[in-house]
């Protein structure tokens, strides 16, 4: 496989780290964005992956800020070269029932989870089209397919990623650029560790596979969709949910 530069937003997170690891194991150079102000956590993150033989680096960028994304893209190009694989994994939750949700909870989340995918992808799409190769994966969620109590903002942002990816798939196909979503169900990371025990037990009881998934399960789906040979698979949503929600 040709060594291609992969940019993973939110690459420091539970799922993002495993995506970086597996893309790196496939021989890719991986760069992640971080919002860590002093970079200490990220330096340790990159060091740990490098110790495993992964060619990992990071750049600072708040994906919710368009200008910051533009500057980040210039930095990535200058330091590491042209991005050929982009995984938009940065995401947050700001849970609240809609009748109690503040405008800030809505807008902050949409700015990062949905606008962030635009802000970042917009910086790299022209190069991908020009080089006639690009693999874009947007990390959505089962809750963007089914909706979830207390998550009108999160569900809307993740559902929006499906529309974004499908439209982008049509635009990119003639130029060798694919765009897909991966929709994890419940995955064991700090995001789900914040779920109260009683709620977690009731969620697990509904998962046919009998447990929450692992970041590795999500990363494998990303690797499938970003493979050099994956050019004909575009505009799809690949669920990774242990049978929690089945659709076609
Ligand atoms: P984490 O909280 O572990 O990771 C999220 C990452 O996003 C972190 O690295 C975080 O950085 C980064 N991030 C947050 N805000 C910004 C920002 N403004 N700019 C740049 N980066 C930012 O969560 P997960 O690994 O669990 O989730 C990864 C993705 O998978 C998310 O999009 C999430 O919605 C999705 N997902 C997760 C599921 C799960 O069960 N865990 C289920 C379905 C979808 P920092 O650590 O510095 O804050």
From TrEMBL:
Species of the source: Spiribacter salilacus
Similarity comment: Belongs to the short-chain dehydrogenases/reductases (SDR) family.
GO biological process terms, semicolon-separated: monocarboxylic acid metabolic process; poly-hydroxybutyrate biosynthetic process
Keyword check for Oxidoreductase: yes
EC class: oxidoreductase
Residues in coiled coil: none
Limits of the Ketoreductase domain: 4-185
EC numbers on record: 1.1.1.36
InterPro entries tied to this protein: Acetoacetyl-CoA_reductase, KR_dom, NAD(P)-bd_dom_sf, Sc_DH/Rdtase_CS, SDR, SDR_fam
Short name of one Pfam family: adh_short
Annotated Gene3D superfamilies: NAD(P)-binding Rossmann-like Domain
One of the record's GO cellular component terms: cytoplasm
Identification of the protein by name: Acetoacetyl-CoA reductase
Protein encoded by which gene: phbB
One Gene Ontology term of the molecular function aspect: acetoacetyl-CoA reductase activity
Keywords recorded for this protein, A-Z: Oxidoreductase
